[in-house]
Design a protein that fits this description.
Elements: H1 2-35, H2 39-42, H3 57-65, H4 68-99, H5 103-115, H6 120-133, H7 140-165, H8 168-176, H9 181-210, H10 213-218, H11 227-231, H12 243-278
Helix pairs in contact: 1-12, 3-12, 4-7, 4-9, 5-7, 7-9, 8-9, 9-12
């Protein structure tokens, strides 16, 4: 009876997982289907999953109408720089907050969590004024600073958890063997934190890559605009969307995140396993 119950529970778990995967994949698959449909099928009253006459015209039109490559380069620059800055700043801070327990670090951790509840509209005016005084409005560096600061609290919160998962006994053993603080951090702690650092950097990158609001407000020159801003140009003044080219451009915009995650996720898993063996 227990084996039958266990099999039923497991089957239910697999069914729930399959349903969740379908739920996640549906928008992406529909996006691909829309991007491959000709204009006649897009206006059909009875849409189909698989295009009857698939075409790449929507991709050609998207590249002809908007500077997607330049916008993608701007987004890539901003996302990579913001992720790097956030990780470099958050890693030592996270180590101190995790290893030095005090009222200050507890208050800082609470502030990190609370800061995530602030709406973007509340922050945009002071950010705009600060960047204006620094002459960074309509510049990628100004946007990079905003992205790095915006990703920093969550990156710090993530890395604090990873640091606390590293046994302090490993550092104490290295200290007993004569290793200094810096040597211990570089040789013992840093390798075990590598999966967490990679995961945090990936989060910061995806957040900056997909962000629209800050880029829409802070960037005015078309040459500086990022990919999410350029995607809004496929929507007309009255809200009518050029659906085919928009779907094609949106599909291309999702590829970098998927490719980077596919490349890095194996390293994250292998790094976690290596850390488990070392600990």
């Amino acid at each position: 009876m227990s084996m039958r119950t266990g099999g039923t529970v497991r089957a239910g778990q697999y069914a729930a997982l399959l349903g969740y995967l379908v739920f996640l994949a549906f928008p992406f698959l529909w996006l691909i289907s829309t991007a491959l449909k000709p204009a006649r099928e897009l206006g059909s009253l009875h849409p189909t999953w698989i295009p009857d006459h698939p075409t790449l015209d929507n991709f050609r039109t998207a590249f002809d109408e908007q500077p997607l490559l330049r916008a993608a380069a701007n987004s890539l620059t901003a996302a990579l720089c913001a992720a790097l800055i956030a990780v470099v700043v958050a890693t030592p801070l996270a180590y101190v907050m995790a290893r030095r327990r005090s009222r200050i670090t507890t208050a800082a951790t609470g502030w990190v969590v609370i800061s995530q509840a602030f709406p973007l509209v509340l922050l945009i005016i002071p950010l705009f004024l600060i960047l204006k005084n620094l002459h960074l409005i309509n510049t990628l560096w100004g946007l990079i600073m905003v992205y790095a600061v915006w990703a920093l609290p969550f990156a710090l919160w993530m890395l604090v958890g990873y640091v606390r998962a590293v046994p302090a006994e490993l550092e104490e053993a290295a200290s007993v063997d004569g290793a200094g603080r810096l040597r211990t951090l570089v040789s013992v702690t840093a390798p075990l934190l590598a999966p967490g650092i990679v995961a945090t950097a990936l989060f910061a990158f995806i957040t900056a890559w997909n962000e629209l609001f800050f880029a829409l407000v802070l960037l005015k020159t078309p040459e500086k605009q990022t990919l999410p801003v350029v995607l809004t140009h496929f929507i007309g003044a009255e809200g009518a969307a050029d659906l085919g080219p928009l779907a094609a451009a949106a599909f291309l915009a999702t590829l970098p995140s998927l490719v980077i995650f596919a490349i890095i996720q194996r390293r994250i898993t292998s790094g976690m396993l290596a850390g488990a063996v070392k600990s």
